[in-house]
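User: Here's a chain of 135 residues. Predict its fold as tokens.
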Amino acid sequence: MKTLLLSLILTSASALPVLAQDWAIDGFDPVGFVENGRAVPGRGDISTLWKGQLWHFASEENRNRFEADPRSFAPAFGGLCPVALSEGRKVPGDPRHFVVIGEKLYLVGSHRSARKLQQAPQDILARAQESWKTR
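Assistant: Prediction complete.
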């Protein structure tokens, strides 16, 4: 009886839906940022699970590209704002504000942070990298 109950609990738990807070980059398609230079909403029916989060895509092709090499499309610094990191702070980036540098996606906290990053990318990214290493 205990085995049957445990089996039912585990089966039920695995069937639970992934909550919206587990959606990576608020449901935007990570390939869209890099390939199209804009925030493209992902579709609810085209997704994949990676690093404990549900990643959504605008097309099957984008999902396939992500699954082949997710690190190429996932935001740098785990989605933290590199400008804040360069200042020693850990602030989540906002997918509505982003910069793509060298085909790498950086989520920033604001339009102002995006401008700062675009004006001095090498300096900010070097300091952010140092902060990221010591976190």
